[in-house]
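Researcher: Batch entry, complex prediction.
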Amino acid sequence: MSRTASCTIDLAAEGKSSGYIQIGDSTNTSGWANHCVPIISIKNGAGPRLLLLAGNHGDEYEGQIVATELSRRLQASEIRGQVIIIPCLSQEASQNGNRLWNNGANFNRIFPGNEDGTINEKLAFFLSNNLFPTCDVIVDMHSGGRSMAFIPSSNMVWVSDLALRKVMLANMLAWNTEYHMIGGEQPSTNPYSLLPGDVVRQGKSLSTGEFGGCGWTTAETVKIIRDGLHDFMRALGILNGEYKTRTERGLPEAKILDFREGDAYVTAPCDGIYENCVDLEDEVKAGDLVGQLHDFNHPDRKPIPVYAGRAGVISVVRGYPPVMTGDVVCTIGILRKNIAEFEAAGN
Amino acid sequence: MSGTVTPSFSLSATGHTAGYLKVGDSTNSSGWATFHLPIINLNSGSAPKVLVIGGNHGDEYEGQFAAADLAAKLDLAKLRGQIIVIPCLSLPASYASTRLWPTGENFNRLFPGDENGSIAQKLAHYLATELIPYCDAVVDLHSGGRGHYFFPSGTASVPTTGDGAASLLDNVTAWQTEYAIIFPSQPRTNVTALLPGFAAAAGKSIFTAELGGAAVATARSVGIAKRGLAGVLSRIGVTSSGEDKPELRTKKFVDMRAPEAYHNAPEAGLYENLKPAGSAVRAGELIGRIHFTDSPNRPAVDIQANCAGVIGVIRGYPRVKVGDCIAVIGPVRETID
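Model: Structure tokens for the complex:
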């Protein structure tokens, strides 16, 4: 248990309460300071305990908007069990329109945190030690941030633990988005340093998604994440109201974008200003033009074409146009028309 | 005449010439330095002469891509005059993905520039004294930048009096966008400090557009920019591409001249767009909300439409301060008086 962070509300209390996770701090402008992260608890008797997280990255606003809205609106009478909401984990990054904290920390790479570290490390330690072990289900809502736009969708990592995979798959499908993305683990990254990785390490039920991006929000992306979250909470039996699958609503089955293997990531071959030549959901063949890199410093230099490494569906496009060599400029998922076809196609 | 900016080639050269506007500079890291601004000259040796500008603001990329594409790909066999292209006018701002130059200068407020000022002021002075006077028409490509997203549209800032309005309203239909957005002269601003305002005062034919925004250029918005630019050049008659067909011209105007068109944030917070750009709304209809992520108990502040019309502009960057513009709405008209 953390000795450097605590919660101002009793998370075991029935009804609705709100307060802060307080982390001891001492800064140039404030001694005996507390870094305050808003937290809201809504509890109605026995049932699953859901922890809803947004703003893991500061410039991913879609989840912050729906989590803030839910914090205000949700009443204990509308649920069974408990919903704990942290609408904005990386407060200062969100205020500044940044992915990262002011000290450069990526909140999604510092787990399991450090009780005696920086503010963000102390917060991660509190989540990992005080909150995750007491919760049944943890939701971490993302979007592309300033650099990327995703087809808004819930997604998952195709974990090797079969029992966990089954739970995460059911969670992912419960959002009822038109697409879902399923990937392998991120290369050259310690998966347990990510918030979702720490949740998985603790054997907890996890659900994540990427619901838009580019450091802004549209009416369409916020509607998708809001509707999806309500469906997910109904599927868990936490939120009142009948849960219906896409099929039960007469909608086509969710399409799966498969990122388990191959050349899913298209990267910039050189520095430049990147122009998207394809839009989200476009189908491409291997060798198709997906974008071009401009060198605005040289008027006679032709743009450098960037080609698809494989056939598939454009799942992510570039947001922030100035790119450096190696930056991801788009991703191409292999389309599986439903989860059965996805499972048949791989291991 | 400018003594501090010189082009690397003669503007009277015919064919395709690519080079630089060279601006004398001297910096901490480089004495006897020369700032290089790329410029491309496409010239068949006759009139009309057209200046095409992308990147007046650095983080407005749609026009930069469209202008670069024009400079690289125009078929000289279809050229009937001269097109001078500056694909990325605020070069350092474009690479930094900011509206303003690293010095804090807004290039679109610097006119008539200063021969002995900053790099941006020297460039503005060169445009004001040499390039703009040399040309018959000026095309200035904009979008919303990081702060805003425009429903991609040709635009015209129409003066309330004077005979400039008729030609601006005619020009704006050449962009072939679903709507043309009609602005008033910008309040509390010297209009001739702006590039298009300066060029209009100099008697030039003006074509401006807002082709998307939110500092992200999608294939769709860039496509609209490229097609619109082709339509404009065809209208001017500097290309023989035949792309200014009457049936493709813009037929509907969104009139943003009334003060109530502009919606400003009454509180600092996290702004949520509730309507897509281009949607029709009634007066009083909910169009957005300001959330307070640092005090989630606090009710969101609802933003209602001041007037009926089409939402031409929505918010890009969601963190807003008091007074930030979050939406612009105007009625749709078939004609503008």
